[in-house]
């Protein structure tokens, strides 16, 4: 059976299949142990108010599933020291897939999003879904073998894709840089290799989840902005990823820049942020000035060389991104904005341009404690988020109960 990531529009909570949601179920007790802190049966009884017999029964169920394991013994003032139990992230594995326009990054992680094996391949998304997903299946199978695990050990597969995803079905909707992918059944195709839940989301949403889970778990309101071939954002509000009504939330790239030009955009409009401040747009502006910048790598090399015109162009692109983000700051009031994507690696001039526009155009109250930072996950945000997408769903109360049952 395949599940896709679904966000309840009424409360932002992840919608889950119907199941045992009893507060004293094994799945509910497991949520208290997911933080990895060892606890005794007495600790759990005190935290929940449940009878010791109920706690013991639920602990035994979780031990049998391997989702928790003994964590040693606590000191005792007399008699036998009480045993402690903690989350066992090695109980299952997760396959995390981050697809970009020209690359595929694939990893096997444990249930705590720790990467066990990883590979990045040059893979052009325009080759179509069958070619790309077949390559993903082969690489993933090899990675599982490398870490001594099998597809039967998987909790699920998470996939981030560079296009708009209808989250209710996990299918792409008119992706501009992905010919042949429109409404293609990604989960159905990957089931040829992996008969587990397969969750598909936009790559920037996955990056937001990854950065949030690993670097900012205590931040309730943040945005992750990817600036590369396209421009998009993942929005975390009240600790939850927001998709919007059809999964189109966060599409910054097709917002008109306040002082933008009439530059045509791939969406059919003019003056979109993506048309004037994405990686290809910056490279095109520099080519018009006589620079030889055929691709992103050449652009980054030019900026890092300290060329004054390249630095000014990148900083201006940052200002244009910031001018759009300023409206987002006034509307959503995040406390952290993380900037990722290949253009963000151009250095502080790009970030400086973003900060300049945001702080000058946003309300003082909204920016009082706002931090605008570069990504801290070193290119792994996508696979970490794809892993978190799976564990957030697969380790929910209902699905743990189903797994045990």
From TrEMBL:
What keywords were assigned to this record?
Kinase, Transferase
Q: Which GO terms describe its molecular function?
A: kinase activity
Q: Which domain of life is it from?
A: Bacteria
Report the coiled-coil segments.
none
Pfam families per record: ROK
Task: Give the PANTHER family listed for this entry.
Answer: GLUCOKINASE (PTHR18964:SF173), ROK (REPRESSOR, ORF, KINASE) FAMILY (PTHR18964)
Q: Which family is this protein grouped under? A: Belongs to the ROK (NagC/XylR) family.
Protein name in the entry: NBD/HSP70 family sugar kinase
Question: Can you name the source organism?
Answer: Nesterenkonia lutea
Q: What is the lineage of its organism?
A: Bacteria, Bacillati, Actinomycetota, Actinomycetes, Micrococcales
């Amino acid at each position: 059976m395949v599940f896709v990531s679904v966000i309840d529009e009424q409360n932002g909570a992840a919608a889950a299949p119907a199941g045992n949601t009893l507060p004293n179920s094994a799945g509910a007790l497991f949520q208290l142990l997911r933080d990895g802190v060892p606890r005794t049966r007495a600790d759990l009884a005190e935290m929940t108010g449940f009878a010791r017999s109920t706690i013991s029964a639920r602990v035994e169920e979780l031990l049998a599933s391997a989702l928790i394991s003994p964590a040693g013994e606590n000191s005792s003032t007399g008699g036998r020291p009480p045993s402690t139990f903690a989350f066992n992230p090695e109980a299952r594995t997760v396959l995390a897939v981050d697809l970009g326009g020209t690359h595929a990054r694939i990893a096997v992680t444990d249930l705590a999003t720790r990467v066990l094996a990883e590979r990045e391949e040059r893979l052009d998304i325009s080759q179509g879904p069958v070619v790309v997903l077949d390559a993903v299946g082969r690489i993933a199978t090899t990675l599982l073998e490398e870490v001594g695990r099998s597809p039967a050990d998987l909790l699920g597969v998470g996939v981030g894709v560079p296009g708009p995803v209808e989250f209710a079905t996990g299918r792409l909707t008119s992706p501009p840089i992905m010919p042949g992918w429109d409404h293609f059944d990604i989960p159905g195709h990957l089931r040829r290799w992996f008969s587990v839940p397969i969750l598909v989301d936009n790559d920037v949403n996955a990056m937001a989840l990854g950065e949030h889970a690993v670097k900012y778990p205590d931040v309730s309101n943040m945005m992750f902005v990817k600036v590369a071939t396209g421009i998009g954002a993942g929005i975390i509000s009240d600790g939850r990823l927001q998709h919007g009504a059809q999964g189109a939330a966060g599409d910054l790239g097709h917002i008109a820049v306040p002082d933008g030009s009439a530059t045509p955009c791939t969406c059919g409009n003019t003056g979109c942020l993506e048309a004037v401040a994405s990686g290809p747009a910056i490279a095109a502006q520099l080519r018009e000035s006589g620079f030889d910048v055929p691709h992103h790598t050449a652009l980054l090399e030019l900026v890092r060389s300290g060329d004054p015109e390249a630095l000014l162009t990148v900083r201006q692109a940052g200002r244009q991104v910031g001018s759009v983000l300023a409206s987002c700051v006034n509307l959503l009031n995040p406390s952290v904005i993380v900037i990722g994507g290949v253009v963000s690696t151009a250095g502080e001039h790009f970030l400086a341009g973003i900060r300049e526009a945001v702080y000058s155009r946003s309300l003082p109250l909204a920016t009082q404690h706002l931090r605008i930072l570069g990504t801290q996950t070193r290119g792994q945000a996508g696979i970490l988020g794809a892993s978190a997408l799976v564990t957030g769903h697969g380790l929910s109360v209902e699905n743990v109960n189903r797994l045990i049952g």
